[in-house]
Every structure is written in structure tokens, then in C-alpha cells.
Recover the amino acids of this structure.
């Protein structure tokens, strides 16, 4: 039987088992890195002791305002210190963090407020009109607004709501945190980009965020005290969990409200930024920066890029500027990145074009994940031959709990014991995955998912439009932009500017078509629009 057969008295207890949570990173850092710089934003600099105390104030003030464990607290904030504090303070009150995409339209935000049942929303002064309009559209009561006035960016409080700093003054800097009793407890609620109708609420647990944060620190080799620039919006997969990771290694979070090449270069030169993430559009802005916006620096900046496969030409152009880029891939449903294009020494001697081509691969699974493979329609792995395509299937600790209040969609997503990504790829002989297309005709513009179905739905409301189809058009700046092909009703007229303006009234700016082409749409014998043909046309435009 062996000695393992008798494990009497070897059970879990308070001494040997503590539920995993990223909250523990900051609880520790407040002591271990007490006087180290934790957060930098323009003229603001805070130590880890101050960071932890402010998080305690936020958690206890929310509790005093009636927030109970399991309640949802939303944020509509850019990447400013309050958004980072919310990542710890809201869960430290036992609540669920719901960071909302600040680029969404009022209708979608109203839906998210209602579906998530947010009790309180922390809202940036500049975004108050958006939050107010969304709440006005709701059937029931909306969340209570706490105004976050970003004085560093010139936003004075409106005076209409309790202001964030006043809220913190009501809190206790030494208040104990409500830590999870079970690491499967919900930590955050992130809404997808709504690529097939309404956005779905993706639920993260404490365990998954802890493990992704730890795994990223290991595989990205961030070391101790890295300086990280927040370019990835904290409303995207909670900034790929990087804000939760940084206290584990005593890193400095440099907040960036407005992502411009100048601000990126300034942060690298002035704050010594060592790590950052961003979509390929961010890489392009660095490559194409004006000379006046560039600053010299004498170290290599490590960059994770995701959101769309970066063109090999982009990777080739940015590396000589002092950036080492690694492509990563993931989805809202996987807490951010779960694969990385891990570099092997055997590729060092290759010509730059070949190296860029390898770096443009999607990559292999990260160490906290269990399995990432490409499946055919029957759920079996496709051959690793570099050409047979299938759907990326994912299994591991950083896969969501499921979709909030949507058991049918959850069951569909987890069919066969894997998360079905909807992304089409092939696998190389060495296991590296390469995405070839997005299922469901998703357009990825500047790292944001755009549903062609949603854009088509908006355009179809125009009285002159008989039929329309929206596809991705390649774009130097944004990677892809929506391009609409439109058939008009007989006897009706409309021009491109009119339809773009019409769509803009109904959609977020990044979802609005940048080109409208009038033509008869190519169709199959059953009347289905042939989108592949339209994609080819869009490429020629």
C-alpha cells in the first residue's frame, strides 16, 4: 500500500492552506517594500505603505456605504491611480470588481450596469456625462456614482457627487481586508466586446488571477522592482492582471492616462520604464513617432503585444529602437494572455526578416496553463504540420468561471472539457500556434474587438439601406478598421459621409465604419453574402 495510504491527520488547516488571491501580494508589499515607490502618475508618487493604506481606506469606506461581500462595484476610469487602487480595494471589501470599457456607447454601459447590478460606480469626471446618460436609460435604479476627479490632468470635481478623495477620508487606513474563504470566489466581472449581440459577463476567480500574475512574473522574467507602464487599459482583462502582479515583485506602476508616443517615450526616459504591454497600434505609434516626441534611453524595454497578430514588418521596425517585443495571445475569457511566442537561442543567428517572421507566431502555452491546442470540428487535435487549420482550444487555471447569468453560453464554451476560443489557427511541428483568422468575422481595431454583425445592424436602420455587409479593411494605424459594403433600396440615395455619421450616432467611435462602398453584394446560391470576397476587395481599397 505504501506510506501514502495512511494520511491520518494530514488534512488542510489554517497553517498549511490559504486560498490564493492577488490581494496577498499588496498585503505583503506594504511591509516588505514599504518605502519603495509603488505608483507614479505625473506629479503623484506613492510608496507601497501609502498604496496599501489607501486600498484599506477604499475597502472600509465601501463597506460603510453598504457594499456587502459578493456585491458588484463598477469603474469607468482611465489608467489612473484610482483604477489601480480599485483593483485591490474593491475585492478587499469582499466585492466583485467590474471595470467597464470607457469607449463604449451609453446603451451598452446601461446594459452592463443593469446586468452586473453594480451598487456603486467610480467614474472619472470626464466620463460623468457617459455614466449619467447610461443610468438615465436604465429601467431600474443605477449605481451610486463616486466621482474621481483627476486633478493631475486638470479635472476639478463637478461638486455633484461624493468625490473619491473624500470617500477615502471616510475610510480606515488600518482596516482589515475581507480575504476570500475560497479561492474560487469571484474576483472580477469583465464584459466581452459583444461580438455576437450583447456583451457577455466573464467571471474571474482569485485563484486564476493569482496564478496568471505569478506565471507572468516568472516567464517574462520581470525580476525585482521592475518599472511597468500601464498602456493596456485596466478595463481589458484587468490589464492582463499586470497591476495585480506588480506588488509581488515590488514593481512601480507608472500610470498613463493618454497613450501617445510622446507619453511613452517620456515615461521610459524619465521613470526608467522596463516593461509595458500594448496592441500593435501602440508599436506603430512608437515606430512612427515625430522626432520631437522621441527621447533617448540606454536600456532595452520588454514589451508584450496582443490584441491582433503584429505584422512581421512592425516587429522588424521596432526592435532597433530599443524594444524587445514578445507576442502573447488570449481572450477576456482567459484573464488576458495564455500563450507567448517564447524565444529560443537557436533562432538568434537568423536574418532579421526570419526572426520577425517567427516573432509573428502566436506562440506556445504559458507555464500556469495546462493545454492549448488546435482542434478540428470533432474536437480532436489537428496535425502539427503548419497548415491544417482548426479552432484554438484552451484548458488551465486562468480560464474563466463562466459567463454571468448565462449557463447556456457557458456550457457551449466549455464543450468537451476545453474552452472553445472561436479563433482559427494552425500549429507548427514545434507546437507554436499561428492564428489565421478570427471566427465570427470579428474585426480587431486598435486592440478592440468590433462585431461586424453589430455594425451591420446599426447601418440597416438607415432608411436608404437595403443590405449591408461589414468586413475588416487593413489600416496602417489601427491594424484593421470596419469597412461597409452597402446595397441601397431602389430609388433611394445616400452618400458615404451620411452613412458614417449615421453609424457614429449609434456606435462607439472605434466601431464606426471608416469606409462605405456602394455595390451589389456578392452572394451564394442560398443568398448568403460572400464575406471572403468583400475582404479581398477591402484590401484593394
Amino acid at each position: 500500500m505504501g506510506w501514502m495510504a495512511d494520511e491520518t491527520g494530514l488534512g488542510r488547516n489554517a497553517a498549511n492552506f490559504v486560498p490564493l488571491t492577488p490581494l496577498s501580494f499588496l498585503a505583503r508589499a506594504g511591509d516588505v517594500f514599504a518605502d519603495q515607490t509603488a505608483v507614479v502618475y505625473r506629479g503623484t508618487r506613492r510608496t507601497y505603505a501609502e498604496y496599501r493604506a489607501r486600498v484599506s481606506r477604499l475597502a472600509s469606506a465601501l463597506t460603510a456605504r453598504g457594499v456587502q461581500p459578493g456585491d458588484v462595484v463598477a469603474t469607468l476610469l482611465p489608467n489612473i491611480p484610482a483604477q489601480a487602487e480599485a483593483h485591490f480595494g474593491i475585492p478587499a471589501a469582499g466585492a466583485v470588481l467590474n471595470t467597464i470599457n470607457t469607449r463604449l456607447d451609453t446603451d451598452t454601459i446601461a446594459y452592463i450596469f443593469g446586468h452586473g447590478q453594480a451598487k456603486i460606480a467610480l467614474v472619472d469626471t470626464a466620463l460623468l456625462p457617459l455614466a449619467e446618460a447610461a443610468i438615465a436609460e436604465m429601467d431600474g435604479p443605477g449605481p451610486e456614482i463616486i466621482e474621481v476627479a483627476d486633478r493631475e490632468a486638470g479635472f476639478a470635481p463637478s461638486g455633484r457627487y461624493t468625490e473619491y478623495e473624500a470617500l477615502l477620508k471616510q475610510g480606515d487606513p488600518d482596516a482589515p481586508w475581507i480575504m476570500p474563504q475560497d479561492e474560487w470566489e469571484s474576483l472580477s466581472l469583465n464584459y466581452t466586446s459583444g461580438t455576437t449581440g450583447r456583451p457577455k459577463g466573464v467571471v474571474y476567480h482569485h485563484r486564476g488571477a493569482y496564478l496568471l500574475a505569478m506565471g507572468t512574473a516568472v516567464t517574462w522574467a520581470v525580476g525585482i522592482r521592475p518599472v511597468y507602464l500601464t498602456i493596456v487599459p485596466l478595463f481589458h482583462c484587468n490589464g492582463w492582471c499586470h497591476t495585480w502582479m506588480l506588488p509581488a515583485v515590488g514593481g512601480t506602476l507608472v500610470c498613463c492616462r493618454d497613450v501617445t508616443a510622446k507619453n511613452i517615450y517620456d515615461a521610459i526616459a524619465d521613470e526608467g520604464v522596463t516593461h509595458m504591454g500594448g496592441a500593435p497600434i501602440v508599436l506603430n505609434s512608437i515606430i512612427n513617432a515625430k522626432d520631437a516626441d522621441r527621447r533617448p534611453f540606454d536600456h532595452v524595454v520588454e514589451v508584450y503585444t496582443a490584441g491582433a497578430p503584429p505584422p512581421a514588418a512592425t516587429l522588424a521596425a521596432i526592435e532597433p529602437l530599443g524594444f524587445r517585443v514578445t507576442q502573447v495571445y488570449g481572450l477576456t475569457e482567459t484573464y488576458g494572455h495564455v500563450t507567448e511566442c517564447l524565444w529560443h537561442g537557436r533562432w538568434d543567428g537568423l536574418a532579421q526578416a526570419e526572426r520577425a517572421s517567427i516573432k509573428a507566431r502566436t506562440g506556445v502555452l504559458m507555464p500556469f496553463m495546462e493545454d492549448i491546442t488546435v482542434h478540428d470540428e470533432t474536437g480532436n487535435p489537428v496535425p502539427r504540420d503548419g497548415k491544417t487549420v482548426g479552432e484554438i482550444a484552451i484548458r488551465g487555471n486562468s480560464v474563466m468561471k463562466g459567463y454571468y447569468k448565462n449557463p447556456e453560453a457557458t456550457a457551449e464554451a466549455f464543450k468537451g472539457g476545453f474552452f472553445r476560443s472561436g479563433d482559427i489557427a494552425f500549429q507548427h511541428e514545434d507546437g507554436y500556434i499561428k492564428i489565421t483568422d478570427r471566427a465570427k468575422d470579428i474585426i480587431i481595431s486598435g486592440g478592440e474587438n468590433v462585431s461586424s454583425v453589430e455594425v451591420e445592424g446599426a447601418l440597416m436602420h438607415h432608411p436608404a439601406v437595403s443590405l449591408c455587409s461589414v468586413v475588416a479593411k487593413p489600416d496602417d494605424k489601427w491594424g484593421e478598421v470596419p469597412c461597409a459594403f452597402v446595397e441601397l433600396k431602389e430609388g433611394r440615395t445616400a452618400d458615404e459621409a451620411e452613412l458614417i455619421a449615421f453609424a457614429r450616432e449609434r456606435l462607439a467611435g472605434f466601431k464606426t465604419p471608416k469606409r462605405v462602398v456602394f455595390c451589389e453584394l456578392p452572394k451564394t446560391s442560398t443568398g448568403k453574402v460572400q464575406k471572403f470576397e468583400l475582404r479581398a476587395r477591402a484590401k484593394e481599397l
Observations:
- The chain has a mean pLDDT of 93.
